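Morning!

This is the sequence you dropped in the shared folder:
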Amino acid sequence: MGIVNAIGRRKAAIARIYLKEGSGIITINDREFKNYFPTPHLQHTVLHPLITINAEGKFDIKVNLDGGGINGQAEALRLAISRAIVKSTPELKPALKVKGFLTRDPREVERKKPGQKKARKRFQFSKR
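The structure's back. Tokens below.
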């Protein structure tokens, strides 16, 4: 199979991964997977594509994560893993597509407008 690389984005987070056949070791920014994502919810988010295709211990994944928060990073990594799996074995695409793992979530933070507190919230109006 060789090494397959892919990229995933979510909000401000960018995940660049290198996927190859191996024993299931996931390294994120030179740290162990369970140390980088300490909560079970985030770990499940990242591993969900592998669980869907029954390949939990079959791939070694090296990840460079940058930007955003921890949840955005987890979802960016999920997209990158899904894309890499489809690159390596295209016949798994329908199973991942049905679950929505190949769709990039386009929602971004709306910018703050001048003369307002936040993007949509305004300062309190005083008639007098």
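Headline: The chain is about 35% helix and 25% strand.

More detail when I'm at my desk.
O.
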